[in-house]
Write a structure and sequence with these properties.
Strand content: 35-45%
Helix content: under 10%
CATH architecture: Distorted Sandwich
Number of helices: 1
CATH class: Mainly Beta
Largest sheet: 9 strands, antiparallel
Radius of gyration: 19 Å
Strand order of the largest sheet: 11-12-13-14-29-23-22-17-20
Structural class: mainly beta
């Protein structure tokens, strides 16, 4: 039976209490903190039963309060980039804080990842879970409307992790919630991920300009270094891809409520993860722009020290009319899901 425990993780510099909630199911344990509704730890066994940490994070709250590249963060109101931090809804122009050069990234200067969320844990029907909630006020980071957001994490008896994002608004606004966990299946801090084997169920990807804003084209992956339809290592075509991957892939159709995203395996440990989602895209980041830093247990996180697979709507979708819409209106409910099945073979 999965179980839930919690403790005080620390206090913010403003004095807000931050909780750490731990979910345990099978041989998998997941830790979450109420600062940023953050997925702070995932521990899974290898083929020999040896359990190790596979996501990048910190031992203490201080690490999350300091600058870091969104380790395990909930991204919002809009994950990824919005060109020039500008968009229009119903003829009205809006301007957002630009925190990535001339563009808006992952919610702005103080996105959802740097806010304190309310939390509530539960155990029932063979799962343990945590629900985080946050009320984003009208005008926060330049976004219109009061937005009530919820992020739910559940872990079942077999060790499958599921994340659900929900939101409602009182004015037309834009929403694209995601999680930015960084993964290393050898163990966090145990070298780079260039030899990880990746499969992505995507026939097309979104080419982008020098500022990583999509051009609007949906390009076939065939004949390009972005083709992961057949399993290959991260490093195989890395140089052909300009030294790193930082691109959104177009996922296939929903089948029984889910889209297949992909699978990642690491042969020395036997650890693997299979991902499913409801969103239309997944952003694959190879960690090539990571700034080396010390993390949990004093371990060093190097360049290429982890990868990210962020299930999401397409970047800059509000300004690309051919992309699926990210506009949320009053009376509607934004609801998207992602799940990860961990395994060892």
């Amino acid at each position: 039976m999965p179980r839930l425990t919690q403790r005080v993780f620390g206090r913010t510099r403003e004095g807000d209490e931050i909780l750490q909630l731990t979910l345990e199911g099978g041989q998998v344990s997941v830790q979450l903190i109420s600062y940023g509704a953050t997925l702070s730890s995932v521990r899974v066994p290898d083929r020999k039963g040896s359990v190790d940490e596979i996501t990048l994070g910190f031992d203490s709250l201080e690490g999350y309060l300091n600058p870091h590249p969104y380790f395990g963060s909930t991204l919002g109101r809009v994950a990824n980039r919005i060109a020039r931090g500008a968009f229009t809804i119903d003829g009205k122009n809006y301007s957002l804080f630009c925190n990535d050069g001339k563009n808006h990234l992952h919610g702005g200067k103080k996105g959802f990842n740097r806010n304190v969320w309310c939390s509530s844990g539960y155990q029932r029907d063979g799962i343990a879970g945590v629900v985080f909630s946050y009320a984003s006020p009208d005008g926060e980071e330049g976004y219109p409307g009061n937005l009530d957001a919820r992020v739910s994490y559940t872990l079942n008896e077999s060790g499958t992790l599921e994340v659900t994002w929900e939101a409602r608004t009182d004015r037309p606004t834009i929403v694209n919630l995601s999680n930015h966990a960084y993964w290393n299946l050898k163990g966090a801090g145990n070298g780079n991920i260039k030899d990880h084997l990746v499969t992505l169920h995507a026939e097309r990807y979104l080419p982008s300009d020098a500022e990583l804003i999509p051009t609007g084209e949906l390009r076939d992956v065939g004949g390009t270094p972005y083709d992961f339809r057949r399993e290959k290592t991260v490093g195989q075509d890395l140089e052909k891809a300009g030294g790193g991957y930082d691109s959104c892939y177009v996922l296939g159709k929903l089948v029984d409520g889910w889209r297949k995203v992909g699978m990642v395996r690491e042969t020395s440990t036997g650890r693997g993860m299979e991902i499913f989602a409801t969103q239309p895209g997944v952003h694959f980041y190879s960690g090539h722009m990571m700034t080396p830093m010390a993390g949990r247990g004093g371990k060093q996180f190097p360049v290429y020290g982890a990868f990210a697979l962020e299930t999401e709507a397409f970047p800059d979708a509000v300004n690309q009319k051919s992309f699926p819409s990210v506009i949320l209106r009053p009376g509607e409910t934004y609801s998207e899901k992602m799940k990860i099945r961990f395994f060892a073979d």
